[in-house]
Design brief:
six-stranded parallel beta sheet; Rossmann fold; globular; alpha/beta; 20 strands
Length: 551
């Protein structure tokens, strides 16, 4: 009978289904109407979430990629739509998240004339995405889509951008479908695992640093078993704290923006640093200051899924290319090294001491509030983090571990937490998603609460309102004390905004109000915004404006 004739839009939607995609996040546009129309025919198998802004849609797709390990699919229109979605692509690139952005494009017959909203997306996303291309022939849609899924998930994951000329999507073609994609991920060999264990056997003060993408719940369990068998202290890179059970005696902290001074000190004392999955980037190394360049004083053993990341800044004594799951599985199966555990115990005790909330005389004690969150959240809760000093409270004082998740942009993009929490809630409405966002970040993406209301999500948003851009104020006061410029925010009525979007809202001004409000939010069948009136003087979990000014 031959291959059935289909439009380019229908072929594209069929490829999404073949490769296992069952949902996408979008803002609709006339440039890809044929895709939207084809999705109408498969709405029993594919869910389309229409966001309120392209940046929100892209952030939702990126968060989906983090949560599932499958490419998050985002669809936007040409020109302004693609420009606004670029923030999510940048996050996916720096966070190594599988993602596919499909961009409607001008017709092929009007290209290179600066036609309405025309942009060359191969140039625009060439240095931001892992791969950027344009499909000019509808018969090649299966080829491009299969490659897009493989590129997004193989090796170091990342974003792919495909431009779709609108007249290509209306072309009718006869073409075979591609086979379902299979990602290519390297695995640690038994020989390499033996070399790693030999290096560990020679170390007196080893430290394990884990991070990066591609970890499953099983991989996290293998990591913990490996640490237990070898009495190894394990730290995580920025916003990867859920890779190991934080309540375990082998977890010793994170190398994030608020890294404990004691952990930095112990890193300098370590004689071996085993890095699994992390890139050793700027945040993790405090702007490349905690390890000497190019050869660290510590014996560096680096295992990463991408060979290009090994030795980019730091020359390792031994290196291997492997996905994290395969690496820790091989190491767990190796003969363990006997160790007395004293070194690990020291680091653990210092971590616990640093986890004690600082004294605070403001009516709303955020340390106590975080203790309430820590004790009350379900085991599988998803915590999403925005950019800003307010996230230090969640990073320093909460406890993470699979199946719970910590989802945050490691590239410091404001406005991420609300769309990410919405996405997490839509992926599994029974699983509690809690977003941490400042007043500045909320004003950038808070409208996505309406997306949750429309599609049945029920995230809880903890809105930290200190009426300033806190992180920038901190830098400003440190570099130019008392010369405030551009960092104040005029107070908005977040209650009216939240209720107008369909969410419940409560303004919290005192510590004793927080716990009952959080309990009510857990029970509410819909989104809730808890507005926390925090003290701008407490500029971070570790310092105040007065101290920055020399007071």
């Amino acid at each position: 009978m031959g291959v059935q004739k289909r439009t380019g839009g229908q072929v594209l939607v069929d490829q999404l289904l073949i490769h296992g995609a069952d949902r996408a996040f979008c803002v609709p546009g006339e440039s890809y109407l044929e895709v939207l129309d084809a999705l109408h025919d498969v709405r029993d198998r594919f869910t389309l979430y229409n966001a309120r802004h392209e940046a929100g849609a892209a952030d939702m797709a990126e968060a989906y990629g983090k949560l599932t390990g499958q490419p998050g699919i985002c669809m936007v229109t040409r020109g302004p739509g693609a420009c606004q979605a670029a923030v999510g692509v940048h996050i996916a690139q720096q966070d190594s998240t599988p993602m596919i952005l499909l961009v409607g494009q001008v017709g092929r017959d009007t290209m290179d004339r600066e036609s309405f909203q025309e942009v060359d997306y191969r140039q625009m996303f060439g240095t931001v995405a892992k791969w950027a291309a344009q499909i000019d022939d509808a018969a090649r849609v299966p080829e491009y889509m299969a490659r897009a899924f493989r590129v997004a998930t193989s090796g170091r994951p990342g974003p792919v951008v495909l431009a779709l000329p609108e007249d290509m999507l209306t072309d009718v073609v006869s073409v075979e479908d591609a086979k379902p994609y299979v990602p290519n991920v390297p695995a640690l060999t038994a020989e390499d695992a033996g070399s790693v264990m030999e290096a560990l056997a020679q170390a007196e003060k080893p430290l394990v640093l884990v991070g990066g993408p591609g970890w499953s719940d099983g991989g996290a369990a293998d990591l913990l078993a490996f640490a237990e068998a070898n009495a190894l202290p394990v730290a995580t890179s920025f916003r990867r704290q859920d890779l190991i059970e934080n309540r375990s005696e082998y977890y010793v902290g994170d190398f994030g923006t608020g890294v404990a001074p004691s952990l930095v000190k112990r890193l300098a004392e370590a004689d071996l640093l085993l890095v699994i999955g992390a890139r050793l980037g700027e945040i993790t190394t405090k702007t490349y200051s905690t390890l000497s360049v190019p050869t660290p004083a510590q014996t560096l053993v680096h295992i990463h899924v991408d060979a290009n990341e090994i030795g980019r800044v730091y020359s390792p004594a031994f290196a291997a290319v492997s996905g994290p799951d395969a690496a820790v599985r091989a190491l767990r199966n190796a003969e363990p090294v006997e160790r007395d555990g004293a070194w690990c115990n020291t680091l653990r005790e210092e971590y616990l001491a640093d986890s004690e909330p600082p004294p605070h005389d403001h009516p709303l004690d955020m340390g106590q509030a975080m203790a309430d969150v820590r004790d009350m959240i379900p085991e599988d809760a998803v915590i999403t983090l925005d950019a800003g000093n307010h996230t230090g409270w969640a990073q320093r004082f909460l406890r993470y571990g699979r199946p719970g998740r910590q989802i945050g942009s490691t590239c410091g993009s404001m406005g991420y937490a609300v769309p990410a929490a919405v996405a997490a809630s839509l992926v599994d409405p029974k699983r509690q998603a809690i977003g941490f966002v400042g007043d500045g970040g909320f004003m950038m993406s808070g409208m996505e609460i309406a997306t949750a209301v429309q599609h049945g999500g029920r995230p809880i948003i903890l809105l930290f309102n200190n009426r300033i851009y806190g992180t920038i104020r901190m830098h400003q006061e440190r570099e130019h004390p008392e010369r405030v410029s551009g960092t104040d925010i005029v107070t908005s009525d977040f209650g009216q905004i939240a209720r107008g979007l369909g969410a419940a809202h409560q303004c919290i001004t005192r510590t004793e109000e927080f716990k009952p409000a959080l309990l009510a939010a857990f029970k509410h069948d819909g989104p809730t915004v808890l507005e926390l009136m925090t003290d701008p003087e407490q500029i971070s979990t570790r310092t105040t404006i007065s101290k920055l000014r020399g007071g």
